[in-house]
User: Fold these one by one.
Assistant:
Number 1:
Amino acid sequence: MHNEHQLKLNSDEDIIKQDATVEEKVVDWMVALSSGEINGTLIQEHQKWLDADPAHQQAWQKLQKNLKPASTISASYQSTQYIAASRAALKTPRRRFLKHSMVLIGSGSIAYAANRTLPILEIMADAYTATAERKTIQLSDGSKVMLNARSAIDISFTATERTIKLRKGECIVDVNPDKKRPFIVETKHGNVLARGTRYLVKQGQDRTFAYVLEHHVEVSTNSGQSLQLRSGESTWFDSLTYYGVQINSDAIAAWAEGVLDIRDQTMSEVINTIRPYRKGFIRLPPQLQQLRVYGVFPLNDTDHILKSLAETFPIKLNYYGPWLVVIEPT
Amino acid sequence: MSSQSFFNHLDLHYLYIENKRWLSSWFQRHLTCVYQSEDLTQNTFIRLLKSNQIIHINETRAFLTTLAKRELYSHWRRKDIEKAYLDALHSLPEAITPSEEDMMIIRSSLEEIDALLNGLSPNVKQAFLLNRLDGLTYKEISKEMGYSIATIERYMRQAFMHCYHAQ
């Protein structure tokens, strides 16, 4: 592709031409970065392209902004049922109207009948949890998977491998030892592999968190970087690399017992932890995100957690109907 | 506030007072619920405000009727999508019913996505939704839909270009 910077803008035609190139390039980048198979070079190249011209930034942001409605559903309603139903609903054909009249021709009932027969089941996860729901799944090899709220997994066991694909959210796996078949939790950023142990994997938008409760595991990022973690150690990783090794306490896994055990975490981490337990949104302004929080709370009553936080911190809660809480400084 | 927009607002105010009842009864002829007709009347005035058009006094009602029709179509469209959504949820083996709060957010998100994708072919939509909602890779979408990866890429390119130009 030619270098747009060398284009001289001396007529309207040139401006249009340059615009067309930017918009095509933006789309090219979005196509490349949405494939699900990206590597470090691509990301660096993309960053370089963004930095090269404010117009690139602007066009990129425009596309991202326009794509936002689609992420509301996938980010807030992580249960695959909601997603499958959304997809089915969006296939509803438009009614057609006679010109100048309100008579309805498109037959709604036929459209609904067609929706019922869609292959919704094929794309459904094997197991999932809804908002504020936790679930333990017993696997055929004697291992167990505990799913935190708004999480979904696919289970795939073969003669050589036991794979749990964590589509969304967080799980703790209690692996029954099997020397021949390693146990793998796969996220969009990489794999966490073990032979017999207990560990926790949490998939975020941009990174995955892995924490070992017993023995050890091997983390490998999509780009091929790998790392051994031992009991009590954790790391965050994305497709490219991992971000250091931290020592954590089992408080991280306390959700399995329905308890939120917070020991010196930021307010923003705490709010992120309770989000899957609430319908609707919690908004936390940037200036409050770094407050340090301690405490033990029952996970099933998030209103109580928010109220306790409001009692101990200089914050107030504004409820806008049942589905939006805005936290504000007092 | 500039004097220009001040007059527009004032005009709109009178327009609203003079036509509100007439418009609401127009909606009532097409709907069963009184509250809905009031909501749609409000929405129609919001459309008017957004449309930023100069209206000639002698064609006010004709123009309002056009906007009202559009409002009614999108109301029906919302209903259709919501019904299809709930039908799809209920047809699943483990039926779940979203709470009213959830439905509020879902309804508005679905409406936005529907408007965003309006005009794209079913295949392009399908590929886009599998990628953006389900988070499937192109390879997985290609398997799911039975088309080559190159085709899926072409669909995605079409969808992103469409979204780029969406208002």
Number 2:
Amino acid sequence: MQQLIYFFRKYRYFLFFLLLEILALALIINNLSFHKSKFVSSANNITGGFYNKANSISDYFQLNNENKELTEENLSLKNKIHQLEQIIDTISETKVLDTTKYNQQYSYINGKIINNNYSEKSNFILINLGLKDSISKEMAVINSKGIIGITEDISNNYSRVQSILNKKSNINASLKNGSHFGSLTWNGKDYNIVQLLDLPRQAIIKTGDTIITGGKSTIFPEGIPIGHVLNIEEGGTSVTRIVNIKLFNDMSNLKNIYVIRDFDKKEIRNLESQKNE
Amino acid sequence: MNRLVVFLWLILILFLQVFVLNNIHFLGYVNPHLYIVFVFIFPLNKNRFLFLTLAFLYGLSIDFFSDTGGIHAFSLLFISYLRLLFIKMFFKKNDLDYLLFNLHKEPFGQVFNYVVTLTFIHHFILISLANFSFNNMGGVLLNTLYSSIFTLILYFLGSYIFRKKQVN
């Protein structure tokens, strides 16, 4: 017994140090997995509040660019409206009224990025939307140019988004001209270039092709732009073929975002879980 | 420096790190980690429980801001524990000298060795943990080298400037 007390007294600092290190290591490992609830996250009121304050100052320096992007988006939306109006006009007589057809599947919530990381291996983005804006886990985050990430950790006023520039990120993506799909990952090197893996061998792909989200997941709706093919690293089989994709977004310069809420998510998830049983 | 001044400095450096230095991205990925001056300016004491606890919490607060889990807490705590070992090694001090120990009063060569060693150890652990795999070890070493040099330049410039002011 005395030996034991002596041992603890002699190594008390080392044991205390070891305890804290193990605690830190547990936090690191907890942070690496997507589904666990996070303890160390900037989506709390203190850090979120500080970032919000800092952001409200730096906002003014980017107003010009933001304005330009918004008018561009407006332009493309207006063009789409006119196209759709024309289609509706021509087929209005054959249309059947069916309330289920008018039910909206997606709704968009607009928000702002208040902290953006892109130089680490696992990057996270902090946005100024939270539980009060009815944000929940695993919602898609996009902007006018393309995809940005998936919401992951939500507090009352802020949420943390797992950026597509994250080693854990894995998003279903497909070719715009064709229905072959693969999974979109990031190798942690260049923040403007992501990798498309597992594309079937039959898929014909060439430099400059546009890549969009595939709609095979319940998170991203189909057809959101991602980027264009920069080059293809052939490896013989489909498993080793790597397609480098240049993102339409400049991930180091993001501001306004939309979070997409999918009303049918529960229904689809239910069906999928039945299939698995 | 008395305790209040040290405390204010640490708060200032925390915000400097989080809002300015974390956004530098020199060459796309090199950031200085100046917050390790915590280890250099915290007064020496025979009882180390307070120091180790504060080192952990200080690292953790950086982690909270930069969404990195606990890697800053881990690496800052690591060099905090090693600090005494290196002080004994480089400055040949014993327990009685702790109260009057001040980095500004030591010869520059020894201070340089001490600071450089701790900085490199810290940055290597930090960047390895951020990488969290054995792939890309070359990138980790290169990043360690660049960020350490960046941090050291900032630290020595800062300590030089503020030492001059104290003399006047």
